[in-house]
């Protein structure tokens, strides 16, 4: 069983869009998360590189989930994105994308996170920072 297979068994897909794009959570803990995507033709733009929306979706999910851990793999505190800033740095050289994120501050209702996307060749592809707001249980 590969790390990806083990992660697929450990983490449920959080929402239908995540399943549609094909990325999945592979690590999740207090203040961090990591997602993975095997690139396929449907992820590419006209230039033959992954569409920027693929990176944005992965980074939004990774940064957002980094602040939501409550001690369970598949149970988390709900939050929404208030702001997401992405810098696109390079095209991937490999076939697998890794989005990893960590919280960098915040308080009871708002938190801040940073993260990046790399590939299996350790190419830095994109960096992001974001602001997120926790939802009350009735909003989530």
Query: How many separate structural domains?
Result: 1
β-strand percent reads 35-45%
Structural class: alpha+beta
Overall geometry: globular
Question: And the CATH topology?
Answer: Thiol Ester Dehydrase, Chain A
Please give a structural write-up.
This protein is an alpha+beta fold. It has one domain (3-134): Roll (Thiol Ester Dehydrase, Chain A). 21% of the residues lie in helices and 39% in strands. It has helices at 3-10, 16-21, 52-66; strands spanning 24-29, 32-38, 79-88, 96-106, 110-119, 124-134. Strand 5 and strand 6 form a beta hairpin. The radius of gyration is 15 Å and the shape is globular. The chain starts with a helix and ends in a 6-residue tail after the last strand. The mean pLDDT is 89.
């Amino acid at each position: 069983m590969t790390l990806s297979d083990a992660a697929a068994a450990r983490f449920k897909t959080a929402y239908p869009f995540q399943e549609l794009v094909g990325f999945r959570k592979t690590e999740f803990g207090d203040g961090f998360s990591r997602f993975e995507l095997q690139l396929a033709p449907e992820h590419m733009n006209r230039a033959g590189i992954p569409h920027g929306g693929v990176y944005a979706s992965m980074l939004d999910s990774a940064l957002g989930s980094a602040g939501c851990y409550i001690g369970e793999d598949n149970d988390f505190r709900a939050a929404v994105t208030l702001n997401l800033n992405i810098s696109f740095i390079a095209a991937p050289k490999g076939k697998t994308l890794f989005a990893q994120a960590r919280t960098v501050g915040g308080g009871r209702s708002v938190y801040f996170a940073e993260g990046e996307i790399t590939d299996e060749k350790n190419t830095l592809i994109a960096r992001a920072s974001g602001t997120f707001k926790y939802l009350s249980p009735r909003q989530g």
